[in-house]
Every structure is written in C-alpha cells, then in structure tokens.
Give the backbone structure.
Amino acid sequence: MGFATDAIHAGVVPDKVTGSVMTPIYQTSTYVYESPGKSTGFDYARTINPTRSALETNLNALEGGRAAYAFASGMAAISAVMTLLKAGDHVVVSHNVYGGTYRLFARVLEDYGLRFSYVDTSRIENVEKAVRENTRMVYIETPTNPIMILSDIETVAGLCRRRGLISVVDNTFLTPYLQRPLDLGADIVVYSTTKYLNGHSDSVGGAVVLAREEHAERVKFVQNSVGAILSPFDSWLVLRGVKTLPLRMRAHDENGLQVARHLEAHAKVKKVLYPGLPSHPQHDLARRQTRGSGGMVSFYLSSPEAAARFFAPLKLCALAESLGGIETLICQPSTMTHASVPAEDRERLGLTDSLVRISVGCEDVQDIIDDLDRGLAAA
Ligand SMILES: Cc1ncc(COP(=O)(O)O)c(C=O)c1O
C-alpha cells in the first residue's frame, strides 16, 4: 500500500469482540491463560500488549523494516539499541547529536566500557579515519539537532556494510515520510516518537525499527528484559498521531521552507540553517536523500543580547524545549535542549547563545512569520 494508506491502516484491525474500528487501549497488565502453560499469545503486558503491537506493526510498515519496538522515550529506544554492544566496543558518532544522546553516551555508557568518537560524519573520510579495530557501530543523526548538518546515509551505510559495522540513524527530525534510512541501506532507525510521529506534544515515547533479524531479536529481548516499554495509552496516542503524519509533514515542510526563506531575507538574521534552502552547503544531498526538509529551522542573530531581546515579544511561538508538535515551538538550544553539552564543545559546534531553533508548526504560516517579525523588531 502507499505511505498514507499504511499510516492509517497498517497494524490496525477491527477489534475481534466489538468490531471497534479504532484499536482499543488495552489497559491491562495481564491476560487469562486458556490452561496452565497455554496463553492466548498474550501473557504479561511488559512482554506484549495489543495496543503497543498495533503501533509497532504500523511503524515497521512505514519504515520498511523487519521489526519495530516501542519504548517509553526516545532515550530508552536509543539505550536499547546500544545494548547490541559489549564493554570494549567503540562507536563513531555524529559530533553534534542531540544533547541527551551525548549525555547517555558520555556520562552513562562510558562507565560500562563503551567508547565513543565524535566526528563530523558529513564527511565520510572522517568516519573512515575514526574506525578502529574495536569499532562496532556508526551512529548518525541527519539532519543534526540544531545545526542541521546532513550525513550521507547511503555512503555511511555502505562503509558499515563493508567493514561489518552496525549503522544507526536517528530519523526523529524527518520521519519516514521525508527520509527512509533503511531503504538507503541503514541497519537501524531510532525515533523519539515524542516529536513528529506523535505530533501533538502530548506523549513521550520512542521507537526502534530494525532491518536485520539478529538485531531485532536482541532488541525485543532487551525491551522485555529492561522493561522501558511504551504504555498502552501512549501507544494509542502515537498510533492516532501517525494517521495524519503525511498531512502534517507536508504542512511542516511547506511552512518550514517559507519561514526559512523569510528569515534569510531579513536584515536582522545573520544566517539561516535549513537544508531546503539553496544556500545550505548540503542542499544537493538534501534533495537526493530526503523528500523535504520538514519544519526544523535554525538561525543566528547578531549577538546573544539580540537573542535575549528576540524572545520576549513572541506571542504565538511558544518558548519550549521539544519539537515536532502541530504548534510552533521556539528555543535557545545553548541554554535549553543542549545545556548538557560542555560549554567548550558548544562553542566549537556553533551552539552559541545567538542561535535560535524553531519547530515550525502547522498554523497559518503568515501568523508564524508575523510573530517572528515581532521578535526580530526587538532583537
Ligand atoms: C533527535 C532526537 N533524538 C532523540 C531524542 C530523545 O527523545 P526523548 O526526549 O523522547 O527521550 C530527542 C529529544 O529531543 C531528539 O531531538
């Protein structure tokens, strides 16, 4: 089926008892056995829950994977993927991954003997050079949050295949509607479903979609063993959100491009970071690898003081962390989403106090632009 049809129907079957068209929220911890040792296939809800299973089937169909698993947060999903590794293994990571991912790697997993090298994965030679004898995985985020650097998924995945490494892509910013890493050869895709997949800023969750059976089996085992599962209610919310994913992503993409163009033409804006603009250094790769650049737009004002003045007059754009909701959110990454990145690394990566990130929502785009103009007039 086509993407929009799968988004609405995949994994969703009318309830056997009532015929309910929508998947019910199976709010149960356990299930009746037919006889001792003989379950219906459902035994305990950490292991399996019909609402979560419907979502996992749906996400797997959208991504073209072998299996998908839903977790209590994006970070729980990423943690589960990292359990494919053992103490002593080394990972090559995009140098400006989401701050929480960096924190998990640097301040939790290093203590368990995993080793990480952070490189600019937009240049394949940097990845090649960083691979060591004990390297087992390359972990990329494309585009990166919030600097919008792209990595060439097909090239990175090809290198991984040749060197026997696992390739992982955090596709949270674009979703399978705009970018399908597994089709480009990646082994694993991770999501914070908190963002565009759910799309309504009312649930925290994560997902892993896997192309290879041996990885899928292990992640399923870990999902049950560690237990960081997505709740039935949150599974239902994400399943409902995904039904409108194509509609929302088209609107985010259209509004994102218009906002980026408007900012680029504005005298108070120093620089706009949006792969959909011809001025982006990787615009050609964006056109090759994605169906659109979505709703995430970052830009630099002239100074931290200008940024401080910019936020105060905003009325529509909510000053908040997170992204990917139907409404426009705006933030200063250096003091909010990326505050956990050490100050010297922030400076090196361009995560200065002059940088603003917008998650452009699906409102009337002129209202978003008028609001940004209010802030820019004050900046
Ligand atoms: C790109 C990216 N990956 C992963 C995460 C972590 O997801 P969660 O907050 O759902 O744990 C985030 C959160 O902002 C993110 O932006």
Summary: The mean pLDDT is 96. The CA atoms of residues 272 and 299 lie 4 Å apart.
